[in-house]
């Protein structure tokens, strides 16, 4: 609590009483803490690849450059780490743009089949490498009132995660169906799943259930935070169902009336 007190002085200049105001600043403190945690996390996430870039560059300059095999190995690491850094900076900028005051959606009617096909095309190589199948199940001619680029970002993140967190040979299924007032979009996988207690945390920035797995697959830990913000901007409801060892379904429900009432 933030406490302020002030005396009440009467016309006769005598003390009549004291006003004490208790201001509940729990929320403010929480926000302040979240901001501090975010800055600490960003610094840490940026520092890790930079330390590695510096280390490998110095080792090359110290003589490793003369060994062709070492040179190739270290340069590959440097290239990969630079890419990670670029991805991280890209996601951070996206997040700050989406959270910014001036963020606006470019509303259109987005054809779901086209959206899913184009996303599958981008991710098909990754799926083939893991011998996975990508399937779509769309009931009818479904369109979603949404910002096409932002909706694509949502779907891309969810399908990419479904591929990353599913072992070789698994399946990813994207479903879409139109109800009276809403459109339901689901991304399901047959992957590792998420323990119940982890589910509330996975949308936090930089939270990962398995840090090493996320890092190795090029994850930044920001994908679901971006998805959550974008879903909220669309007035959509985002939920997750998962069974560890069996698979996960992310569901987003878009409401037709939202755009008009926004
Ligand atoms: P990352 O870049 O680590 O994938 P995200 O924000 O996209 O970051 O996801 C946060 C965490 O949620 C992941 O690190 C992973 O532990 C978990 N997760 C996300 N999608 C899935 C999924 N389809 N199956 C299992 N775990 C998942």
Automatic annotation (TrEMBL):
Report domain Histidine kinase positions: 41-258
Task: Specify the domain of life of the species encoding this protein.
Answer: Bacteria
Where would you find this protein in the cell?
Cell membrane; Membrane raft
Q: What is the protein name given in its UniProt record?
A: histidine kinase
Name the species this protein comes from. Answer: Paenalkalicoccus suaedae
Classification from the root reads: Bacteria, Bacillati, Bacillota, Bacilli, Bacillales
Section of the entire sequence shown: 330 to 591 of 591
């Amino acid at each position: 609590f933030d406490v302020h007190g002030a005396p009440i002085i009467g016309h006769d200049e005598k003390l009549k009483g004291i006003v004490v105001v208790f201001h509940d600043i729990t929320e403010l403190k929480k926000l302040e803490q979240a901001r501090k945690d975010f800055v600490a996390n960003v610094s840490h996430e940026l520092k890790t690849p930079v330390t590695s870039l510096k280390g490998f560059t110095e080792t090359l300059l110290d003589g490793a450059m003369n060994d062709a095999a070492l040179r190739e190995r270290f340069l590959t690491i440097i290239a990969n780490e630079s890419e990670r850094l670029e991805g991280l900076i890209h996601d951070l900028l996206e997040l700050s743009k989406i959270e910014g005051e001036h963020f606006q959606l470019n509303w259109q009617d987005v054809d779901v089949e086209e959206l899913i096909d184009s996303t599958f095309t981008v991710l098909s190589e990754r799926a083939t490498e893991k011998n996975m199948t990508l399937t779509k199940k769309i009931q009818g001619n479904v369109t979603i009132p949404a910002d096409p680029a932002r909706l694509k970002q949502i779907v891309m993140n969810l399908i990419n995660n479904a591929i990353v967190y599913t072992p070789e040979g698994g399946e990813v299924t994207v479903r879409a169906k139109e109800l009276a007032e809403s459109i339901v979009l689901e991304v399901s996988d047959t992957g590792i799943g998420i323990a119940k207690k982890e589910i509330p945390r996975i949308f936090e920035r930089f939270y990962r259930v398995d840090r090493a797995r996320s890092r190795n697959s090029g994850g930044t830990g920001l994908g679901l935070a971006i998805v959550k913000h974008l879903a909220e901007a669309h007035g959509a409801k985002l939920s997750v169902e998962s069974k560890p060892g069996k698979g996960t379904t992310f569901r987003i429900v878009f409401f037709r009336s939202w755009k008009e009432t926004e």
